[in-house]
């Protein structure tokens, strides 16, 4: 084995991963893709009808699919900005998902960095602070949803009253798309910052401390040390964290389902799950939405990869 | 890891509540015992596969089992709201073909017709599931407070007041007793709104989704009537309840409901009421059991079906108008993938006996599908519900099932979104309903074009 | 003003004392080299000056200011690190310009100075390499360039030339000296290379075991070491040490005796144990002894190993009584060996009986017990009482 | 304290004439500007040294030249802080730590309050429970065998974590430290899995796990994987694998070649070097990948719910346990809260302690402090 | 059998060629030292032997086997790394015993050998330290111990003593030599320390710019360098080079001439540019010239800087025509300077006019264009035609 060429050796090492992924991920995805090319059959034992090509995709984009909510509802106009939103912003799955992903990831990155920085210091009780910061990440999504659901239940929690008196929320925030969007955002930041924090912390801990000595002697202020040493060296870990958080955020479902519900804040995954399990068995549409979602995520991630391709130590 | 199954075991899905009374220690009564007593083969034992009780999650579980062709479970407990889609997908055993004549006859004769509808094949009327228990929507109120406010509630139980009277009574009672809430109900954007609470209100205004009860189970070729003025008025009344005199409200109806109802489901709406903080609450029979005990409100709990605005006579469509009680409940269906269908069918037949129904009622408080039986039991055995047997009877007479075709799930979503938006004032009721009508028509058209 | 002053610096790591009560002052513009055995505390001392390590006790002054509690960046020091510590994510240019960019010099200026520094360390054309793509010596030169580019008041250099070949070392040595002079900077330098220490420094500070042994100009350390440690440490190969005892009119060792008047030597009396030290280049074959002003009496020896070094030849001598000492034994510690250095054209072979003499003017005496130096050069002693000197005795 | 004239700045010709500040220790000595453009010959102006201070204190101080005369306690503190910048950082650090602690823990506190509130009295809980019912923490085990669910989840999470770490380590090593054709495309292929909502995998996997394979019959009884830990471990491993592969790739690629070289010369195989040197040195990354995977699996929503029948004896995970408290019309919020506290906190503590052990065990002294 | 043979090894990093077509053979049990300027490819060559770097071209043999494609662990080599590369997560004991534990030696044996190795590198009592808690030199010694503990067939040591002080170096040097002899191992060694290279090696391999320049015993490299590069590189301070031109009966440089018969020198003719090389120790003051068998004619010079090194003194000489050359200029490259090394007791001062002579037997001539050596020692030349030799001319 040691005598294999580097390439052959690499392929050998990748074999177990790809074997598992092929069986459990790629194969199902291919089958799902095939499903997305067939018609729905809501009655009868077989859930799939004839082969229809990309019709399902056309339907979801044009709003003709049998989805409870719009995937995307924009019209083209002749005047600037040439597109016109149909359904309100917070009701369009694509926009809601994108907005959620962007805002949550940005804030989580900042918060996560702050938390990681705190955890990277040496102080008594650090272990317990670390437990505290990790805790939200350990909370099952149902419970995370429940906490924020109850907090904003006017009879139970004080969240609604508080936010209403501050003039930020309406009286029934969980039924109001904009308010519910913000609640979900906060809930996600609460839970997922820990994810960021853990990965960034690992990055911080892997930095060779003697580099800080060099920088200190060279005259770097703490901020400069952060910017010039810490950040670039943590960047690879940070990028991985952001990459996966972005993808996770773009697939948000459970949290929405267990707080405001997919009706109030529809996300792309909401559409998939509703199409699949909503009672009307439209598997083909569900598969098509899933692939459309993947395509959207793929585009965003593609942008990411392009932007950060040259980052030192990056993975591409 | 192995899960070898001893012969004679029949696996049935059920939530904690049913699971808890299926078997018992020693000689204590249990459903299993009742089934045996009712003639079930002693070798056959029902084993419960506990599932979550949330209806939507249960549908997912059921769907993934049946879609994968998996058995056990041999018997699936299905919500009356989503039994029909499974029947249409050929994922249930046709009981009409498999039940013995007399059992089939007694079911057809004695069971509450409305719930049987949810268990029949919509096209040929064959029975594909056996109702285990129905559930009905009730309006609970604090008799003492309303009486104190100077209203006479003596006849309300079987002859509910009109909405105006009810609303005024609630308002006065609330103000008199200085409570936080008047009337609490469920108006969140969820199945419960479209199937039940809005359905009730709409019906009590003489409105209907598809022009009367005849068309409930025949998708495709039926009128969509949600943009009727009566339907719109019913929404405006609800807006009055929520907002008082505001846009899109109806004169003469006071503010009695908290705006929070638009994000409330059963639990949240019940808790202020059971805590003594509200005058009235719309809920299911379990709420009677919970708030009608001596420790709670006892005799001070009033129960009735829905107040109404348009009497049945005044209504345009068949069997709408007047008071109404939404129909819920659960059916038992045999999995066609089971290798123990015979045993399962035996179990179902045993469930169809009155003794078993009564045992279920007594042990779990679940209404028997033959509602006449409610009057036969004493409150000592089954708790407060029996006290309101007449109301239950009235409710069963005015029960309105949801139009649970296989299109219902998607239509339900369309309905509750629009209704909730209208309740919240995010959309004008008329606009919401005309949008809804369009959407529903599109959905109905699906049936014709696809023919599936 | 960049005088550096250490006042009673002590640094402990847990149980371990790395530096113990070191006080010294480096004048503005001075070039002081720290030498000492591995692990004696050179790097640690430097780190306290840089501010990277807080001393457990003592104060550090730079200029007139107590900088003990000041951050490194506020001390105006630049440092070359022993472990090099290049930033792995920056190319050579970025590594070198790091400090300048922090100070927001304009790009033009930065480039000019980086190129100049790269020139000095002979790294032109490598500015866009990453550290991982360079050889050990190249990396070390980047480390040097990174420090010199900043023109600080105080340079701290910890073995900056350890990985460079002789030629480049000589070059860098002159470059650093030139820089030192031009910038008028104070330099504290650590090296294990004697040539570096001797040629570059104004003064050498010899450390041992965390304690300062001697701080003096190179030749003083070489010629007048304060104690056995310094004597043995400075100079390569090391000074020969022969233990002996003061007798009535001389010093007796196992193998030979040296005439002297014990009363002339301060702090000791007859009977005391005294160590004689003599450097290899001060041991001469008797046949060449005429060039010496004051040779000792000839000493019988036998050559053991001959080690030609190119420009000189090391001859390991076994003294008369040496029975079977092996040549690997360190001559500095084996009492029966002497190391002699001769020119390459000297006609000498292994296993040959020879007579050698020591240059009396280059003999050092140390108190064996305390290690303290007693006298450097025996020629000065008999000057006062000429009678005692000339008598010499064989062993 | 004295003025650290930053005379390292060669253009700062005035660096040394600022000794006027030296005399009065501890009150508002400045730091000469790092930026040569800002250098002022008078040098007596108090400026804020701590570039890290986010509070705009710089301006306060810059305006306050006359503050030398009458200083408030705040200014005194600020001045002291300037001479002891560590104090500012320390203070900032504590503020940040407390802020993060509060924001992360408050929802838990509130969850605890919900748990302690007796059933049916769930109203207006702000900082105290309505009533006090610690019995909820016992009741959770009586209503459903919650400990069994926890155990199941624990086993499944542990197994998945091990599978993921081992397989992803191999892949991460290949991606991070070896050059081979197709490296980038293969990495992107791995990444693509994470583009898809879990539901996209569901239908085929549901079929797959419910298909009976004769060779599985001795193991699972009926030959299907449904209701066995494999039905969870395999898809969850696959779904969390990309994250682990990327984390490990990143960390492994940062270990200097020299250490691997040293290990190989000493006699390890490449794989040996991976396990003996690279993994231990990447301990923070490996432990993090492990923790993230473990907790993610422990709490996973979608497959956990659909790949078992929800029976504790059939390897149903903790999620099913929690959902078991949820009725159709009635939700036992207090029990759900209590259950999740019981289900989460021990695991979180365990995980953190395990992580610390792993990290310190593997890298003790690796980082020079 | 641990002969190491490199056959046409070339290693390219992208554009850069680190090692170019190097072939050499190290005999079983031989000690070969690689020297060469920083970045010349020493480490890279070693890595190809160890199997850490696959050569772009060429084959590596150990013993009789082609090991080019063999994994490092199967080559039976141990290596001390230039960048030390201790495992930071293991303490000293674990670091040293790493290879033994991999080979599943029993604990007893492991401990014994680790302790023995620690003893050799003088690290007793530090076995439970972590690398981060050690000084640079201590770390390096751990690296050495890690290699020697394994008793391999082939030792590769890349600057193993770079961070050690002179005394310890000498000690380690002897220890390594002893080990070499006892283990009968083949050693390939990289050092920039001339003394190490000269004393330890059986042969020295001089590399420059990736190419092998000469491989020969130390004194051969010193006395008979094959080309200008080797001549300048071996020996510290460096050999003096003076460019000149062959004339009818001698060599003329800017400042002086040396008599010789050009026809006696192979491959060149009158008119060719030739470089004269002479080592500092072969430049003598005229007053001491009588000790020389064949001095050149006296050369006028002026002393510039005097650099006392302790055991010798470097004198920088400006030759007659040298107008204002500064002393920093590298004498090896400045045509008007000569570096002379004298004994410390020589009576000489800066800025003093002196006459010097060169030792003809130590003069080297190189072809200026190709750099190839022409002759080593002019005394051998005139032996054949005695008439031409004695005439010497001033410049
Ligand atoms: N990974 C790499 N990528 C590109 N160039 C490299 C790489 N490693 C080494 N080199 C180059 O190859 C040449 C030879 O390097 P090598 O490390 O063998 O030098 P060396 O002789 O050991 O030098 P030193 O004495 O400075 O350690 C150098 O010019 C170096 O810059
Ligand atoms: N972090 C630490 N923890 C414990 N002991 C340490 C630490 N750093 C250094 N030491 C010890 O302190 C002593 C002095 O170390 P220092 O690095 O100053 O030595 P040095 O003189 O630079 O040696 P070298 O020439 O080998 O680099 C050494 O014995 C070393 O083992
Ligand atoms: Mg050091
Ligand atoms: Mg090298």
UniProtKB/TrEMBL annotation, chain A:
Residues 94-301 form the ABC transmembrane type-1 domain. Pfam families: BPD_transp_1 (PF00528). It is found in: Cell membrane. The chain crosses the membrane at residues 7-30, 93-119, 131-152, 180-204, 225-244, 282-307. Gene3D superfamilies: MetI-like (1.10.3720.10). GO terms for cellular component: plasma membrane. Its main location: membrane. It comes from the Archaea. InterPro entries: MetI-like, MetI-like_sf. It is a multi-pass membrane protein. Keywords: Cell membrane, Membrane, Transmembrane, Transmembrane helix, Transport. Belongs to the binding-protein-dependent transport system permease family. This is Carbohydrate ABC transporter permease. It comes from Natrinema soli. The lineage of its organism: Archaea, Methanobacteriati, Methanobacteriota, Stenosarchaea group, Halobacteria.
TrEMBL record, chains C, E:
Keywords: ATP-binding, Nucleotide-binding, Transport. The complex is composed of two ATP-binding proteins (XacJ and XacK), two transmembrane proteins (XacH and XacI) and a solute-binding protein (XacG). It holds the Pfam family OB_MalK. Residues 4-234 form the ABC transporter domain. Its EC number is 7.5.2.13. It catalyses: L-arabinose(out) + ATP + H2O = L-arabinose(in) + ADP + phosphate + H(+); D-xylose(out) + ATP + H2O = D-xylose(in) + ADP + phosphate + H(+). This is ABC-type D-xylose/L-arabinose transporter. It is found in: Cell membrane. GO terms for cellular component: plasma membrane; transmembrane transporter complex. The lineage of its organism: Archaea, Methanobacteriati, Methanobacteriota, Stenosarchaea group, Halobacteria. It is an enzyme of class 7 (translocase). The keyword Transport applies. Coiled coil: none annotated. It comes from the Archaea. Part of the ABC transporter complex XacGHIJK involved in the uptake of xylose and arabinose. Responsible for energy coupling to the transport system. GO terms for molecular function: ATP binding; transmembrane transporter activity. It comes from Natrinema soli. The keyword Transport applies. InterPro entries: AAA+_ATPase, ABC_transporter-like_ATP-bd, ABC_transporter-like_CS, ABC_transpr_MalK-like, ABC_transpr_MalK/UgpC-like, Mo/tungstate-bd_C_term_dom, NA-bd_OB-fold, OB_MalK-like. It is a peripheral membrane protein. Belongs to the ABC transporter superfamily. Carbohydrate uptake transporter-1 (CUT1) (TC 3.A.1.1) family. PROSITE patterns: ABC_TRANSPORTER_1, ABC_TRANSPORTER_2. SUPFAM superfamilies: MOP-like, P-loop containing nucleoside triphosphate hydrolases.
From TrEMBL, chain D:
Residues 1-66 are annotated as: Disordered. It is a multi-pass membrane protein. It comes from Natrinema soli. It is found in: Cell membrane. PROSITE patterns: ABC_TM1 (PS50928). It holds the Pfam family BPD_transp_1. This is Carbohydrate ABC transporter permease. Keywords: Cell membrane, Membrane, Transmembrane, Transmembrane helix, Transport. The keyword Transport applies. Residues 42-52 have a biased composition (Basic and acidic residues). Its main location: membrane. Residues 150-354 form the ABC transmembrane type-1 domain. Residues 1-14 have a biased composition (Low complexity). GO terms for cellular component: plasma membrane. The chain crosses the membrane at residues 91-112, 149-174, 186-205, 225-252, 273-298, 331-353. Belongs to the binding-protein-dependent transport system permease family.
């Amino acid at each position: 084995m040691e005598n294999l060429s580097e390439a052959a050796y690499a392929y050998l090492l990748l074999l177990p991963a790809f074997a598992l992924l092929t069986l459990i991920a790629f194969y199902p995805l291919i089958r799902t893709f095939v499903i997305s090319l067939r018609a729905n059959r809501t009655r009868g034992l077989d859930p799939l009808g004839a082969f229809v090509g990309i019709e399902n995709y056309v339907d979801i984009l044009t709003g003709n699919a049998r989805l409870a909510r719009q995937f995307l509802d924009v019209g083209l106009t002749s005047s600037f900005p040439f597109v016109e939103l149909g359904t309100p912003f917070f009701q369009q799955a694509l926009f809601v998902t994108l907005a959620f992903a962007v805002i949550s990831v940005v804030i989580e990155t900042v918060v996560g960095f702050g938390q990681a920085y705190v955890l990277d210091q040496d102080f008594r009780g650090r272990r317990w602070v670390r437990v505290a910061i990790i805790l939200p990440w350990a909370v099952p999504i149902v419970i995370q949803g429940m906490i924020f659901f109850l907090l904003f239940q006017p009879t139970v929690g004080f969240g609604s009253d508080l936010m209403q008196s501050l003039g930020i929320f309406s009286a029934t925030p969980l039924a109001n798309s904009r308010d519910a969007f913000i609640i979900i955002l906060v809930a996600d930041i609460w839970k997922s910052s820990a994810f960021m924090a853990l990965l960034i912390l690992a990055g911080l801990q892997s930095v060779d401390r003697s580099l800080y000595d060099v920088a200190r002697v060279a005259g770097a202020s703490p901020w400069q040390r952060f910017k010039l040493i810490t950040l670039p060296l943590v960047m690879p870990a940070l990028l991985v964290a952001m990459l996966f958080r972005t993808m996770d955020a773009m697939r948000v479902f459970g949290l929405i389902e267990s707080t405001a519900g997919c009706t109030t804040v529809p996300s792309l995954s909401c559409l998939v799950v509703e199409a699949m399990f909503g009672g009307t068995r439209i598997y083909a549409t569900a598969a098509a939405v899933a692939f459309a979602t993947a395509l959207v995520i793929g585009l965003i991630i593609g942008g990411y990869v392009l932007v950060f391709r040259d980052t030192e130590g990056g993975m591409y | 890891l192995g899960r070898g199954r001893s012969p004679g075991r029949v696996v049935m899905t059920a939530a904690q509540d049913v699971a808890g009374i299926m078997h018992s220690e020693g000689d204590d009564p249990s459903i299993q015992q009742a089934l045996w007593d009712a003639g079930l083969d002693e070798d056959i034992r029902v084993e419960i596969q506990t599932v979550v009780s949330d209806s939507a999650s249960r549908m997912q579980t059921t769907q993934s089992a049946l879609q994968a062709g998996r058995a056990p479970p041999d018997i699936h407990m299905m919500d009356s709201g989503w039994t029909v889609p499974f029947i249409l997908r050929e994922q249930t055993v046709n009981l009409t073909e498999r039940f013995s004549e007399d059992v089939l006859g007694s079911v057809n004769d004695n069971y509450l017709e409305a719930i049987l509808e949810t268990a029949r094949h919509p096209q040929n009327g064959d029975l594909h599931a056996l109702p285990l228990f129905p559930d009905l929507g009730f309006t609970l109120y604090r008799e003492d407070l309303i009486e104190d406010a100077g209203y006479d509630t003596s006849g309300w139980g079987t002859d509910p007041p009109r909405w105006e009277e009810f609303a005024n009574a609630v308002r006065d009672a609330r103000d008199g007793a200085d409570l936080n809430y008047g009337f609490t109900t469920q108006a969140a954007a969820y199945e419960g709104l479209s199937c039940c609470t809005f359905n009730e209100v709409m019906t009590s205004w003489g409105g209907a989704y598809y022009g009367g009860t005849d068309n409930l189970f025949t998708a495709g070729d039926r009128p969509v009537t949600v943009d009727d003025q009566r339907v719109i008025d019913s929404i405006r009344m609800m807006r009055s309840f929520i907002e008082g005199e505001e846009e899109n409200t109806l004169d003469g109806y006071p503010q009695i409901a908290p705006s929070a109802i638009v994000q409330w489901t059963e639990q949240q709406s019940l808790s202020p009421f059971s805590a003594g903080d509200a005058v009235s609450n719309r809920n299911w029979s379990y709420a009677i059991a919970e708030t009608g005990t001596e420790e709670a409100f006892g005799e001070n709990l009033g129960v009735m079906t829905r107040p109404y605005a348009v009497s049945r006579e005044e209504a345009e469509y068949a069997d709408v108008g007047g008071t109404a009680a939404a129909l819920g409940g659960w059916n038992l269906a045999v999995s066609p993938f089971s290798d123990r269908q015979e045993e399962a069918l035996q179990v179902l037949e045993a469930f169809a006996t009155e003794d078993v129904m009564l045992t279920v009622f007594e042990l779990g408080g679940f209404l028997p599908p033959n509602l006449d039986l409610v009057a036969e039991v004493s409150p000592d055995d089954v708790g407060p519900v029996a006290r309101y047997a007449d109301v239950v009877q009235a409710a069963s007479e005015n029960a309105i099932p949801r139009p649970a075709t296989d299109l219902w799930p998607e239509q339900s979503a369309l309905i509750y979104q629009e209704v909730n938006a209208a309740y919240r004032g995010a959309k004008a009721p008329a606009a919401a309903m005309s949008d809804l009508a369009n959407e529903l028509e599109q959905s109905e058209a699906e049936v014709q074009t696809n023919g599936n | 003003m960049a005088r550096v002053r250490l006042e009673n610096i002590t640094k402990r790591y847990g149980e371990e004392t790395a530096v113990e009560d070191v006080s010294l002052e480096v004048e503005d513009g001075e070039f002081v080299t720290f030498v000492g055995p591995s692990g004696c505390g050179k790097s640690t001392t430097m780190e306290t000056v840089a501010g990277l390590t807080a001393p457990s006790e003592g104060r550090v002054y730079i200029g007139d200011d107590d900088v003990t509690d000041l951050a490194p960046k506020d001390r105006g020091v630049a440092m070359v690190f022993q472990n090099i510590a290049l930033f792995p994510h920056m190319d050579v240019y970025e590594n070198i310009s790091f400090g300048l960019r922090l100070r927001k010099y304009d790009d033009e200026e930065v480039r000019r100075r980086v190129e100049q520094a790269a020139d000095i360390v002979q790294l032109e054309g490598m500015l866009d390499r990453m550290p991982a793509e360079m050889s050990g010596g190249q990396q070390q030169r980047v480390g040097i360039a990174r420090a010199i580019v900043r023109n600080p008041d105080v340079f701290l250099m910890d073995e900056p030339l350890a990985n460079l070949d002789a030629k480049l070392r000589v070059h860098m040595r002159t470059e650093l000296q030139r820089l030192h002079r031009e910038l008028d900077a104070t330099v504290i330098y650590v090296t294990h290379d004697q040539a570096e220490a001797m040629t570059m420094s104004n003064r050498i500070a010899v450390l041992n075991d965390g304690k300062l042994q001697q701080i003096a100009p190179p030749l003083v350390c070489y010629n007048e070491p304060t104690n056995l440690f310094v004597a043995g440490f400075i100079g390569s190969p090391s000074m020969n040490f022969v233990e002996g005892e003061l007798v009535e009119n001389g010093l007796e060792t196992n193998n030979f005796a040296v005439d002297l008047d014990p009363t002339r030597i301060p702090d000791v009396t007859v009977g005391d144990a005294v160590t004689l030290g003599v450097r290899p280049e001060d041991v001469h074959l008797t046949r060449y002894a005429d060039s010496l002003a004051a040779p000792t009496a000839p000493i019988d020896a036998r050559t053991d190993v001959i080690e030609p070094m190119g420009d000189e030849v090391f001859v390991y001598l076994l003294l008369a009584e040496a029975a079977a000492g092996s040549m690997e034994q360190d001559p500095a510690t084996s009492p029966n060996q002497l190391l002699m250095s001769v020119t390459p054209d000297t006609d000498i072979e292994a296993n040959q009986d020879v007579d050698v003499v020591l240059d009396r003017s280059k003999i050092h005496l140390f108190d064996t017990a305390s290690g303290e130096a007693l006298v450097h050069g025996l020629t000065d002693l008999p000057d006062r009482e000429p009678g005692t000197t000339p008598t010499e005795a064989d062993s | 304290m004295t003025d650290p004239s930053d005379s390292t700045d060669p253009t700062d010709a005035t660096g040394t004439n600022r000794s006027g500040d030296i005399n009065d220790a501890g009150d508002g000595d400045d730091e000469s500007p790092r930026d040569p453009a800002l250098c002022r010959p008078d040098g007596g102006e108090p400026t804020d040294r701590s570039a890290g201070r986010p509070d705009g204190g710089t301006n306060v101080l810059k305006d306050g030249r006359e503050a030398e005369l009458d200083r408030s306690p705040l200014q005194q503190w600020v001045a002291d802080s300037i001479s002891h910048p560590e104090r500012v950082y320390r203070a900032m650090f504590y503020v940040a730590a407390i802020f993060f602690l509060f924001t992360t823990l408050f929802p838990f506190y509130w969850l605890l309050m919900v748990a302690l509130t007796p059933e049916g009295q769930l109203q207006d809980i702000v900082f105290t429970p309505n009533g006090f019912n610690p019995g909820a923490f016992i009741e959770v085990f009586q209503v459903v065998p919650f400990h069994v669910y926890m155990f199941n989840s624990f086993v499944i999470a542990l197994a998945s974590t091990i599978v993921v770490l081992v397989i992803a380590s191999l892949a991460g090593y290949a991606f991070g430290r070896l050059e081979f054709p197709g490296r980038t495309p293969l990495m992107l292929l791995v990444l693509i899995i994470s583009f898809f909502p879990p539901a996209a995998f569901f239908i085929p996997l549901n079929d797959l796990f419910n298909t009976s394979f004769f060779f599985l019959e001795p193991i699972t009884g009926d030959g299907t994987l449904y209701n066995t830990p494999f039905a969870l471990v395999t898809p969850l491993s696959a779904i969390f694998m990309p994250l682990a592969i990327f984390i490990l790739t990143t960390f492994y690629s940062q270990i200097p070649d020299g250490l691997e070289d040293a290990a190989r010369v000493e006699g390890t195989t490449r794989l040996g070097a991976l396990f003996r040197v690279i993994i231990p040195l990447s301990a923070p990354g490996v432990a993090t990948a492990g923790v993230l995977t473990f907790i993610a699996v422990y709490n996973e929503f979608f497959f956990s719910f659909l790949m078992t029948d929800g029976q504790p004896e059939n390897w149903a995970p903790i999620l099913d346990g929690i959902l078991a408290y949820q009725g159709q019309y009635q939700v036992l919020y207090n029990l759900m809260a209590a259950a999740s506290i019981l289900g989460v906190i021990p695991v979180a503590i365990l995980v953190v302690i395990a992580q610390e052990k792993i990290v310190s065990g593997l890298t003790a002294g690796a980082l020079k402090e």
